Structure formats: C-alpha cells, structure tokens
C-alpha cells in the first residue's frame, strides 16, 4: 500500500568556462570532469533503468550555461581530446600496475569505464543534450531550467534584469528541448517575492526552497515540508527541501559520502606520481591536476589511506541505498493519514555530487531506484508536475527571502570578500536599461552590441564568482572573469551611447562569449521606458541626496532602542554624502538647532500638559514637527524623501508627504499589537490605527527582522513587495572597558556577573530572569545580577527580589550612559535577554560586540540573530527553568563561552551600519524614481 512519494531532484550546473584563446585552461576541466564522472554516468544509469523496465521518476534541472557548453562544438571537440588523453593514461596505468594486486584490477576498471563513456559520447555524436531529451521522452525524467547564468536573483537590483535572467533561461531551454520548462531551480534556492511575476509570465509552475522558507512562511504550512504550497496569489507551487534527506547525503560528518569505504577524492595520481611519468597528462606548465585515477579509500580522518576496493564500496552504496529507503518509509508512514492526502518528501541535490565528489553516487541512485521499484510498495517516486496534478488544492502562503546557503539567507553571496562586485553590477543594469529604452530606432549593429552587452552582464551576474570568493578557492579566476565581463559590458555600452560601435571588438567578444544566440536585449527595457527617458534627462543617475527623518527620540533623549537606531543610521548616511535632516523632540540643555556627526538636527520643544494623556502629547509633538518642517522649507530646505520612525510621527509624516508630494518611507520598530499580545483598550486601538495609517501612506515599510516582516504584513494587510527587511546595526568594536568602582569590583567574593540591559517593562521579561536567579545561585553561589534600565516595573521587580530572597545578589543600576554600559557588557560573564516580545533586540548585538556570551529568548528578531549553540544560547520565552538551565550551562563551561564568543564576533559583519545605510539609500532611490515616473504620468 502506497504511503507517499519521493520527489528526487538533481540540479546540474556549471559556470560558463569556455575559453577560445587556449585549450589548456584548467577551468575547462571542471566541465570535462563533470561530464566524465557525473553527467554521462548518470545518463547511463537512467538509460539502463529504462531498459530494465524499472518504473522511476527523477527531476533534473539543467542550467542554461551548462546547456550552452554541452551544445558548443569547440568544447565538444576538446572533450573528445580529453577522453583520448584519459584513455592513453588508462593504458599506461594498466601496464604500470600489472603485478600489483591492490591496484591493477582498479586500473582495468577505470579503463573499461572510460571506454564505455567514450562509446556513449560517440553514439550521441557528442550531443549530450539529445540524451537528456531522449530520457525526458520516456516519462521517467522531468527536465526543468534554472536562471540564465545562475545569478543570485535577490541581489539583482532592477526588475528588468530579473526578468531577463528568467526569460533567457526559458528561451534557451525551449530551443534545446522543444517545450517550455514546467519548473525552475532558483539559483542557490534563493527566493525573493520579486520573481513571482516573471515566473507567472513564463508559465513556470513550481520551484524549490530550503526548509526554513516554510518554517518562516505566513501562515506556516500545516503539513510542513510534506506538501508543496502555492505562493501568494500566483498559483505557483514551492517545494521545500527535506532536512533528513539533506543531512543523510550532504552532511560532511554524518552523510553517506564520508563513509570510510568510499573512494578518497583528494588522492589522485596527478599529485602522487613522479612528474616525468605524469607530465603529459597534467597542465603543460607543470601544474598538477586531478586525472580521475584514484586508488585509495577514505579510510579515516588521518592522512594514511588504504587501497580502494570497488566491490566493498559497491556493497556500502547498496547498504546506504537501503538505509535511505528505510528512513523515507519511516517518515512517510508517520505522516500517512494525517494530511487527507499522500505526503511527498522532496530531496534536492547538486547533480555533481553523484559521481564527481561522491564517486559511488551513481551506484547509490541506481540501487535506490531499483529497490524502490522491486523491494517495496510503500513509496513511489514522483515528479513535481505529477504530484501537483494529484490534488485540486494546496495551502496558500507568503514566503520571504531565503536560500539554501550558509545560515539560510544571502551572506555567502554578499560579504566582505565579494561586496565590491555589486556597485558595478547595478551600474551595468541601469545603463543597459537606459540604452535598451532608447534603442528602438538604432541600427542593427547597435542592437547587436546591446545583445552582447546583455550576455556580458548576465555572465558577470553568475553566483559562481561570489561563491568562489567566499569559499576562497579559485579566487583569482573568479575575480578575473567578473572584471572581464563587467569591462566588456561597459565598453559596449560606451560605444552604444557614443553611437559608434567598434566592429572588431564586437566580433571578438561575440566569439569569446557566444552563448544564448536567442538573447533579446529588449528584455531590459523598463515597462514605461519613454517616461524613464524623460526622468533620466533631468535626473541622470543621481540617487536621492537629501532626506528628512522624523523621530520622537534622538540623543540625548533615549527611551528605548529607537534613539540609537536613528542616530546611527543618520550619521552613517551622512558619512556617505547624504544630506540628512532629523526633526525630533528636544529636552534638557540640547540646542534646538544642532549638527551631530554631520547630521542636521532640528528639535522641537513640547511640554506634556499635566493630567493629559500620552496621545495628546504625541498630537502636540506632531503639530510642532510639522511647523518646524514647513519653516525649514520656507528657508530653502529641499528634500527628496521623508523617512518616519514609528507611529508617534505618523500625522506629521502623512501631512508633509501630501503637501510636498514626496515619497514616504516608514520604519516600524515595534507594534502595539505585538507589545501587548493583542489590542484590548481604546488607547491601544488608537495606536494600532496610527500604525496602520503610517504603513498605508508609506511607499515602502522597513522592518528589522523576519518576525517583524511577517507581523506587519499580517496586521496591516501589506503586500509583500512593499515591505523591506533591513536589520539594525551595531558598532562592531565597542570602546575598551575601564575600571569603575562599585560595579566591577568583586563583591563579597561573587565571581560571576549576569547582566540584563533594557527597559523595565513586562515584554522585556526581566521578571523571568529574576525567577530563574534562585536556581542559578544554587549552582553558582558566587553570582550577582546587574539589571540596567529604567521603567514602570522597577518597584514590582524590587519586591519580587525580596520575596525570592535574592536581594543581596541583585543590583538595579538604573539608567547608565554608553561608556558605563559598554564596560559592564565587556566584563560580564553572561548577558541575558529574556524578552517576551522583541522586534529586533539590539542589546543582543551589543553583547556579541562586547565579546560576552549571550542567552536570549527564542522570540521575534532575536531568533534571527541568535543561532542556538553556535553564537549564543536560546531559551523558551517566559520560562524561568529554561533560563536557569542555559545560564548554568554557560557559567559552568569555559570552552562553550569561548566558542560562542568567537562565532558571535564573526557574525557581526552583516550588521555593519555602513552597509545598512547603503541598503536604505537604495530603497530611497527606488521610491524617488517611481515618484518621478508618476509625476510624468508613466506609472
């Protein structure tokens, strides 16, 4: 009886590594090795399964760059030469190992395998694309595409460039196979809602995401990853990777490929044998390379290796195939009957794993598919199209940005090793769109140059280059290739704009980068390019340079984290040349007009009337802010964008937006609903409505965490493309600690210090830390607790300490300045953030920057920051026992504290204020351009 399905997906991709200038480029070997060790062996396995009448289903994505190389005559000829050379080496190896019982049989097996591969290649006249086409015709293999050059789509700036990647992929696939692809492999499984419109346009029915895309979906899918979902209102399905399948095959420690019986990848005769013998088969310059002749098994973690036994490795592959099948049976049996339909397990992998990195991988797949067919009836393999056809309805959810890269988002493809690439990429995107918009009356030669510029931009966008830089493998090659394509694109665009195309140069680059013959540069035209031309005539490429921010908090006024956020963001943008004006509340001795770190600060003086509500105070503050803004405008201030922070400035922001006809950006730092876990009073309802007004009036809404992204979209019914996620930032290196009497002296022999920093309000959860203190003190009697912050719960918390009998161990430090706080953080044993509601949790970053181990609630934005047992420890919100357990674990394990500190320090790079400021400016530029389009009637 069938209990469910296995959706096995292989993603085949290589970057475009065709080099016409010479035939000994090492990078072309990437393709030749993949063809020899992976693509042809897999084709042979699948063809034999068909001949043996095994009923199986496998889905294979073939990237357009790979398809282009497989169809290229030059590379086909070079691969034939590569095979010939490999067979000559095989003959020599058979002779060299004759008399060596350990290696001779394996050398003969390698020779026979190469002969079979050569015969297969000759039978298809070098056209592997037709071999994939034949398999698709059997119904056992479903083929799909990927983005044109495997670009990391969320980091493409313009919508036109995203569309071009998808459209070119579909066109290339259709030219190869004669039909449109039913699905797409989004490169790196990187999803952004921006792709949906173009997947719809080109009739894509499904794509794949990593597991956590479903766990963070809104609403969360009831069936988890055992069912696809329909995304938004698109009708397009998303399948999520099953974590168990991934771990059993991919894990470097626990995955099958690491078994000691399997072949050792890193021991090859290209490196082991004498140069005199191996020289004809390595690089002409004497560079050692892998030849594919490997005689040792993994053996163990050490450098000593035992001879490889192919028969024993085959037995192990059979054992692992049986184990994989058993585990899927257990999964599906558990879910069977719980869903009202049969569940599906989605198992996606890089195709190159099977045969190249894991030599026995094709054997594993062969045995697995045979076992599933002959040895059981509980699981059937299925393609995504077949599964989607089984049932009329699937859950509908909204998905946020995600990938299957390190930590689940985009840090692999945007970090300190590769961030320098993106300004050049984005400039090329914008310039190509401008040129494409103006090209309708241009000569065929200019249009030909634009087509080549599009090819060069796409090749520069390949995610492979940034990945290689992050992995620090062939970095020089990746940097060189990226710069080559960018420079060629810019040179061609210069020619187009000058209306003088250098024919020799164009022909040269066309011969070098000859992929995508069906490309159409008009894909880069914006939807209203006549209006865009009018905009660019008056405002060529300048981003908004003058910003008005509205915030009720700004130093020295600091009630929560808002003050610090606005201050750090404003001064980071000012340092980048933006003219930033902040209108805020005055107080104390602060001047009404001030310049702070390049930021123009305009303060208003509002006194809250006695006996009047906070709502009345906020209304009076908005009137004062509005008056000050209008006064500044009368004195000559001209701004491009208004940026409002939280509901307290909503009225002034809305009025200025309408009066000045400027785009409004809103940052929502927290919601009234979230703070109170619902709306229960008239005051809460009023604040909730002002929050809705602000988000409704805003062109874009910025939030600081994926939790807040889901919350504001749900509470205020916002479309997903209106919300942008930008984290809060941190000064990565806090000032050095200094000695302060009364705080850092050890009191009464207490040797551990646990610190809380935050407002003393219920949602910050400090009451639960105090409830945990007795258990902590029983385990570590020499512990003191320092509570930093002010708030309405102070008296209640002091009484709580008295009832618990922990008064001698708890110090309420009240409000402290930044220097005092930084010193305290740096000398603490642990920082605890026990929040019940936390949109972001800046104190968590401050603790990480101070090098202090962190214990934090698994709630809100803290869940984005803290990765349990990697850069900090998580606790259940509101659970004193959980807090006590994790704090005691931390205090009792110096090695754990050291490891968490080191990892946390490395994670801070993505919270740099300069990067966040640049990303904020990109949002400003986006809405300012849209406003200009609307002004001239093109949107």
UniProtKB/TrEMBL annotation:
Substrate binds at residues 241, 258, 404, 464. GO terms for molecular function: 1,4-alpha-glucan branching enzyme activity. Residues 559-732 form the Glycosyltransferase subfamily 4-like N-terminal domain. Keywords: Carbohydrate metabolism. One of its GO terms (cellular component) is extracellular region. GO terms for biological process: alpha-glucan biosynthetic process. It comes from the Bacteria. Residues 746-904 form the Glycosyl transferase family domain. The active site is at 188 (nucleophile), 350 (proton donor). Residues 8-393 form the Glycoside hydrolase family 57 N-terminal domain. CDD domains: GH57N_AmyC_like (cd10792), GT4_PimA-like (cd03801). The keyword Zinc does not apply. Residues 425-524 form the 1,4-alpha-glucan branching enzyme C-terminal domain. It holds the Pfam family BE_C. Belongs to the glycosyl hydrolase 57 family. This is 1,4-alpha-glucan branching enzyme. The lineage of its organism: Bacteria, Bacillati, Bacillota, Bacilli, Bacillales.
């Amino acid at each position: 009886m069938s209990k469910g399905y296995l959706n096995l997906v292989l993603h085949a991709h290589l970057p475009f590594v065709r080099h016409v200038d010479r035939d000994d480029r090492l990078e072309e070997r990437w393709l030749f090795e993949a063809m020899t060790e992976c693509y042809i062996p897999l084709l042979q396995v699948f063809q034999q399964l068909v001949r043996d009448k095994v009923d199986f289903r496998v889905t294979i994505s073939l990237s357009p760059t790979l398809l282009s190389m497989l169809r290229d005559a030059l590379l086909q000829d070079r691969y034939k030469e590569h095979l010939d050379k490999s067979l000559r080496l095989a003959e020599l190896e058979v002779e060299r190992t004759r008399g060596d019982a350990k290696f001779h049989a394996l050398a003969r097996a390698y020779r026979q395998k190469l002969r079979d591969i050569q015969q297969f290649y000759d039978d298809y006249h070098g056209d592997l694309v037709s071999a994939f086409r034949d398999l698709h015709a059997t119904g056992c293999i479903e083929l799909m595409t990927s983005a044109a050059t495997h670009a990391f789509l969320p980091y493409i700036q313009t919508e036109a460039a995203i569309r071009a990647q998808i459209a070119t992929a579909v066109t290339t696939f259709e030219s190869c196979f004669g039909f449109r692809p039913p699905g797409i492999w989004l490169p790196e499984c990187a999803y952004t809602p921006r792709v949906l419109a173009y997947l719809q346009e080109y009739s894509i029915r499904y794509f794949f995401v990593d597991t956590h895309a479903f766990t963070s979906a809104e609403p969360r899918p009831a069936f988890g990853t055992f069912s696809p979902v329909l995304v938004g209102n698109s009708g397009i399905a998303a399948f999520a990777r099953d974590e168990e399948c991934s771990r059993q095959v991919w894990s470097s420690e626990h995955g099958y490929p690491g078994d000691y019986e399997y072949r050792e990848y890193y021991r090859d005769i290209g490196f082991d044998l004498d140069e005199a013998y191996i020289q004809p088969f390595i690089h002409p310059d004497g560079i050692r390379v892998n030849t594919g002749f490997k005689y040792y098994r993994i053996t163990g973690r050490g450098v000593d290796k035992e001879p490889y036994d192919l028969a024993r490795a085959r037995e192990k592959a059979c054992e692992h195939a049986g184990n994989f099948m058993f585990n899927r049976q257990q999964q599906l049996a558990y879910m069977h009957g719980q869903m009202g339909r049969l569940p599906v397990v989605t198992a996606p992998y890089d195709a190159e794993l099977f045969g190249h990195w894991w030599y026995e991988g094709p054997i594993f797949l062969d045995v697995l598919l045979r076992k599933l067919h002959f040895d059981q009836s509980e699981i059937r393999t299925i393609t995504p199209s077949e599964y989607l056809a089984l049932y009329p309805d699937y859950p509908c959810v909204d998905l946020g940005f995600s990938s299957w890269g390190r930590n689940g988002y985009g840090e692999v493809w945007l970090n300190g090793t590769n961030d320098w690439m993106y300004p050049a990429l984005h400039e090329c995107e914008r310039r190509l769109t401008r040129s494409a918009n103006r090209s309708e009356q241009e000569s065929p030669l200019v249009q030909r140059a634009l087509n080549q510029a599009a090819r060069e931009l796409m090749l520069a966008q390949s995610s492979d280059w940034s990945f290689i830089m992050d992995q620090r493998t062939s970095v020089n090659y990746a940097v060189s290739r990226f710069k080559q394509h960018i420079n060629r694109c810019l040179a061609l665009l210069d020619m187009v704009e000058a209306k003088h195309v250098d024919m020799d140069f164009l022909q040269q680059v066309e011969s070098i980068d000859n992929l995508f013959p069906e490309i159409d540069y008009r894909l880069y035209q914006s939807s209203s390019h006549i209006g865009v031309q009018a905009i660019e005539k008056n405002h060529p490429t300048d981003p908004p340079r003058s910003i008005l921010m509205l915030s009720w908090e700004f130093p020295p006024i600091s009630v929560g984290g808002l003050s610090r956020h606005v201050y750090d963001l404003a001064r980071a943008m000012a340092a980048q040349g933006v003219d930033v004006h902040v209108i805020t509340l005055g107080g104390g001795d602060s001047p009404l007009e001030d310049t702070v770190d390049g930021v123009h600060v305009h303060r208003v003086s509002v006194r809250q009337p006695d006996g009047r509500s906070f709502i009345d105070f906020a209304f009076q503050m908005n009137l004062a802010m509005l008056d000050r803004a209008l006064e500044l405008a009368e004195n000559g201030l001209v701004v491009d964008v208004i940026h409002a922070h939280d509901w307290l400035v909503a009225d002034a922001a809305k009025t200025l937006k309408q009066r000045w006809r400027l785009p409004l950006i809103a940052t929502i730092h927290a919601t009234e609903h979230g703070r109170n876990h619902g709306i229960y009073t008239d005051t809460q309802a009023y604040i909730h409505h002002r929050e809705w007004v602000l988000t409704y009036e805003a062109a874009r809404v910025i939030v600081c965490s994926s939790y807040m992204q889901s919350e504001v979209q749900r509470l205020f019914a916002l479309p997903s493309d209106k919300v942008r996620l930008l984290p809060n930032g941190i000064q990565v290196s806090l000032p050095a600690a200094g000695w302060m009497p009364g705080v850092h002296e050890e009191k009464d022999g207490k040797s551990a210090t646990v610190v809380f920093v935050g407002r003393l309000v219920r949602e910050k959860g400090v009451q639960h830390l105090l409830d945990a203190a007795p258990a902590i003190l029983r385990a570590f009697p020499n512990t003191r607790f320092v509570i930093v912050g002010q708030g309405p719960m102070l008296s209640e918390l002091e009484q709580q300490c008295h009832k618990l009998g922990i008064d001698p161990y708890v110090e309420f430090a009240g409000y402290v300045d930044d220097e005092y706080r930084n010193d305290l953080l740096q000398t603490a044993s642990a920082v605890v953030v026990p929040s019940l509601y936390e949109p972001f949790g800046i104190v968590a970053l401050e603790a990480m920057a101070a090098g202090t181990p962190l214990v934090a609630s698994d709630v809100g934005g803290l869940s984005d920051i803290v990765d349990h047992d990697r850069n900090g420890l998580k606790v259940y919100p509101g659970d004193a026992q959980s807090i006590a357990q994790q704090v005691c674990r931390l205090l009792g394990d110096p090695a754990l504290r050291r490891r968490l500190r080191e990892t946390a320090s490395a994670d801070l790079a993505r919270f740099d204020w300069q990067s966040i400021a640049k990303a904020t400016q990109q949002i400003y530029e986006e809405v300012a351009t849209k406003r200009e389009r609307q002004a001239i009637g093109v949107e």
